[in-house]
Specification:
membrane; 4 strands; four-stranded antiparallel sheet; Pilin; alpha+beta; Glycoprotein, Type 4 Pilin; fimbrium
Length: 177
C-alpha cells in the first residue's frame, strides 16, 4: 500500500493565517496612526519649552512684574512670525497678564501628516507656584501645567492654574492630557 505524504499547507490553513493577519492589521493601524500624529504634535511641546524657560527666568528675576515684561516682550513679535512657527507649529502666544498662559497652536495643512481637522488646535502651558497662579508675593520655582482639551494630569498633580487648550487629548502627549 502506498502512503501519500502531505507537503505544504492546505488552502484553509492559508486562509486562516491571512484572516488573522488582517484582523491584527485592522487593530494596529489606527493605533499607529494616532501614535504618529502624537509624535508630530509633541513638537508643539518642544516649541513651548523655550517660552517656558523665558517666563520662568523672568519670574525668578522679577516675580510677576517679570512675567508681565517677558510676556509683553515676547508678544511684540506676531504669534505667526516665522521664528515662532515650524512644520508642525502654527503659532505661539503668551497671555500678557495673569495667568500668563502660553498657547501653542498645531499646524495641520494636509502636507505634514497631521489631520487637517486639528489645524489650529492648541496645547496650553500655565505657570503655577506652589500649585497656584503666581502672585506678587509668590516664592519658589514655576511648575507648568500642560493641557489639551482635558487637564487630567495637571489636576492629579494638584496644579490649580490650568487653562484648557482645544487639541483633542488623544493626540496630545500624556503630560498634556
Amino acid at each position: 500500500m502506498k502512503r501519500l505524504l502531505q507537503q505544504g499547507f492546505t488552502l484553509i490553513e492559508l486562509m486562516i493565517v491571512v484572516a488573522i493577519i488582517g484582523i491584527l492589521a485592522a487593530v494596529a493601524l489606527p493605533a499607529y496612526q494616532d501614535y504618529t500624529v502624537r509624535a508630530k504634535v509633541s513638537e508643539a511641546v518642544i516649541a513651548g519649552s523655550s517660552v517656558k524657560s523665558l517666563m520662568s527666568e523672568a519670574f525668578q528675576t522679577d516675580g510677576t512684574v517679570g512675567l508681565d515684561a517677558a510676556a509683553g516682550a515676547y508678544n511684540k513679535t506676531p504669534a505667526t512670525d516665522p521664528s515662532k512657527t515650524s512644520k508642525y507649529v502654527k503659532s505661539i502666544a503668551v497671555g500678557a497678564a495673569t495667568p500668563w498662559t502660553i498657547a501653542v497652536a498645531v499646524k495641520a495643512d494636509g502636507l505634514n501628516g497631521i489631520p487637517t481637522g486639528l489645524d489650529g488646535g492648541t496645547i496650553t502651558f500655565a505657570p503655577n507656584v506652589n500649585g497656584n497662579t503666581p502672585v506678587a508675593t509668590s516664592q519658589g520655582a514655576i511648575d507648568w501645567a500642560c493641557a489639551s482639551n482635558t487637564s487630567v494630569t495637571a489636576t492629579k498633580r494638584n496644579l490649580k492654574n490650568v487653562t484648557l487648550g482645544t487639541l483633542q487629548a488623544k493626540y496630545a502627549p500624556s503630560e498634556c492630557r
